[in-house]
Amino acid sequence: MNTQGRKTTPDVESAAATDVGTYTGNRALVHEEPLIFELDNPGVTGVDLEAAPAVASRLGGLKAREGIGLPGLSEPTVVRHYTRLSQKNFGIDSTMYPLGSCTMKHNPRLNEKLARLPGFGDIHPMQPQSTVQGALELIDQLAHWLKTLTGMPAVAMSPAAGAHGELCGLMAIRAALRARGETSRTRVLVPESAHGTNPATAAFCGFTVDAIPAEANGRVSVEAVKAKLGPDVACIMLTNPNTCGLFEPQVKEIADAVHAAGGYFYCDGANYNAIVGRVRPADLGVDAMHINLHKTFSTPHGGGGPGSGPVVLSDALAPYAPLPYVVHGADGFRLVEHEGEVEQGAQPFGRLKAFHGQMGMFVRALAYIMSHGADGLRQASSDAVLNANYVKARLQDLMSVPFDGYCMHEALFDDRFLKDTGITTLDFAKAMIDEGFHPMTMYFPLVVHGAFLIEPTETESKATLDQFIGAMRHLAGKAKAGDAAHFLAAPRYTPRRRLDETAAARKPVLRWTPPAA
Amino acid sequence: MRYLPLTEADRREMLAAIGAPSVDALFGDVPAAANLNQPIAGLAPHQGELQVERALSRLAARNVPAGSCPSFLGAGAYRHHVPASVDQLLTRGEFLTSYTPYQPEVTQGTLQYLFEFQTQVALITGMDVANASMYDGATACAEAVLMANRVTRRNRAVLSGGLHPHYRDVTATTTGVLGVDLVTLPADPKGIEDLAAAIDDKTSCVVVQNPTLFGHVADLTPLAEACHAKGALLVVVVTEVVSLGLMPSPGSMGADIVVAEGQSIGNGLNFGGPYLGLFATRDKFVRQMPGRLCGETVDADGKRGFVLTLSTREQHIRREKATSNICTNSGLCALAFTMHLSMLGELGFTGLARLNHAKAAQLADKLAAAGVTVLNQGFFNEFTVQVTGDAAALVDRLAAEPLLAGVPVSRLHPGQADLADLLLAAVTETTTEDDMDALVQALGGKQ
């Protein structure tokens, strides 16, 4: 190919060259992709099956089903379809994704490879236990490190996600209270700044929720907790570091006060990633804490799951851990699956999941822990906190900070700096998308107005942070200069512009239906 | 450490910009007594990929993969062949490393596949609408009972004795703390029970599994009529979702809520998780559903797009008044499901179901010919076999060969002497005739 002397830029201004429209509606790499149902070519399939043996049907008189309505597609059509869909997504692989509280850090690919080893990925949950000793040992090893890192004596491995872990913790607390004969403890204290799952879980577990107001400094004070304590309090659900990205300095005093009043301390461990290797929750007086393996130990978030939420438990709650669990006996590892098999003193509160927990996530989390090692885990927490403070320090002159001082792993801003600009936090977020970043968490926590919760994580380089900071400063400057139009029209460069969520909720269309003939 | 991009020089420069003397200073709010000033006990320093892979491969090698020998394991988890393209697509970083689609403009990929997933689930269950997935079939079952209680404003649920005991237990644990009254019928291996007689004017729903734990299949239409006559809902549980390619859909038989374990399509065994719960219902109940829902809308240019919708049911908006506390679901497992089902299509899905059923019938015939008793009149791809002596001991003995003969009923219903000689045997498209002959020989001694 002769490239000598060839012009690489058009004669017209590049701005005028955009959005000329295309015949297909596609825009180069980004395709207008129909739904699979609209690609239907009846009679085509993407899977070749062997011929079924000629035997009589044994369907007990039921008539075989016909006409389900699934589309017919070949393998290449399906591969291209989902490849094109993937190209309409931001992931951590594509860009910085500073979604506060969600901990979007790099997902190591070694962990994907290991989870897919047939010895982990192709074993059945009901295989004879003699054939899964390595799997049971892996669960036991991960449990050991979760206990060691947190300083807690026990861990329940089966919860499937953070909220499921909260449910596990609250059920253990409920069972412990019943064992003490204290069924009248029905009130759960939840700070206003808590994740929505905390009050939802408490209610889902039959408790009433009592909100603790936040202090002006973004923390929960021991006085505010003491004012709410009483003989009907089952526990407090406290997030630490909290959702404002701050470590609760009075956490131990709060734990002591709750214990003195006969209650338990449930810690929401969503932000545990800030303190791994630096602080052990056991030393803060925690009775139960879930660990989101998909946050702290970097199992992939996968577009909204699967997660995994093991719950570490204090001695007071350990006897009530749910079935099943792994024990180490004389002849190897064993699963305790039924009440009849439990050791003396154990009183499991029940079962939370069909099988033994999120094994695929356990493999990844253990690989993460071993890869980082003792030095790497502590360094990861330290770098996560350093990165967040760097972002905070370099933006606080232009954006508004509700709480002064150092933060932990996430930096919180409010929308006061946008006052009188006509620009909201949402508008600002959409302009960040055009700059190539996934926005931060917006409007959470609820205790500050128009929250920007930015969690860079430790896996962002300084160069990326500097570019992000540059973009944020640029946008904050533009906002203050009165260029509202720039924000209100954003995002411009995405496969879709802003979507009408009100219309979606008013007349819900939740599935495809064939067009009327 | 290969995952950490900062250099010491970066850290110094950043601390200077912050105006902090050290990283330790940033942790100043941590009480001194809680500061861990020592290395994590017993944990080695960071290791390379090679070392970690070596250590975990050693653990993996101590397990017997179900695919490495004849396997007849089922009882809520099934080994099917998943096309290679599914996992190849699943590991695309834009899917794998994305999160809940809170910003729809940059997550149309996730939202569109969720919309396709919801449609597929609605189609195969024969229902109007499905959510974007739950943790697994058992948690979906518990949520279905709670939803039926909300819809009917009643507080008593009747559970079939054919329901998987783990589903029963998860439901009992989850609903028990809310004071729900559960009536559980005894497990009958022949599948005989009178659910209709257990319905009264306080019953919110009847929960019935089809095929049952023991593999029996039933026309649920009369039961649906009995439920509706008393103002109760029918909740149908499906643990082997491939059965929906051959059996009449729960929706066509009158189900009000269908919950299922979706693992069979697109997802490996993974020793029990992660899996995905399917949850489908009728349009009129949609606002009482738990979990995320994706809906269609238009963007500022009028183009079709997708968003999460009806979120006023959910915990992040409604807090203690939400329909469920669920937040994270099984997004990636749902993607695997939707890709595999797209690959199968109408022909492949119905063909796969027929193949599973025909192979199971072939095994049943072979067992009968060898004088082994199969309890079922009808089944899909799993049935109950009566063996000589204790089924659990037999399964343990055969595991050494290795031959994974199935799930002894006593592992799920312990302490019931009348069930001790029963074995659940499942057959899928991955089962070969040689596998069948090995089982027949092990159980019956002749071929």
Record keyword descriptors for this entry.
heterodimer, A: 517 residues, alpha/beta, seven-stranded mixed beta sheet, three-stranded antiparallel beta sheet, 14 helices, 9% strand, B: 447 residues, four-stranded antiparallel beta sheet, 13 strands
Descriptive report:
- The complex is a heterodimer of chains A (517) and B (447).
- In chain A, helix 3 (109-115) packs antiparallel against helix 10 (359-395) and helix 6 packs across helix 7 (197-204).
- In chain A, strand 8 (325-329) and strand 9 (332-336) form a beta hairpin.
- Chain A is an alpha/beta fold.
- In chain A, the strands form three sheets. A seven-stranded mixed sheet of chain A has the order 1-7-6-5-4-2-3, sandwiched between helices. Chain A has a three-stranded antiparallel sheet with strand order 10-12-11.
- The radius of gyration of chain A is 27 Å and the shape is globular.
- Chain A contains 14 helices and twelve strands.
- Chain B is an alpha/beta fold.
- The mean pLDDT of chain B is 96.
- Chain B starts with 7 loop residues before the first helix and ends with a helix.
- In chain B, the strands form three sheets. Chain B has a seven-stranded mixed sheet, sandwiched between helices. A four-stranded antiparallel sheet of chain B has the order 10-11-13-12. In chain B, strands 8-9 form a two-stranded antiparallel ribbon.
- Chain B is built from 14 helices and 13 strands.
- The longest helix of chain B has 39 residues, at 331-369.
- Chains A and B meet through helix 2, helix 3, helix 4, helix 5 and helix 6 of A and helix 1, helix 2, helix 3, helix 4 and helix 5 of B.
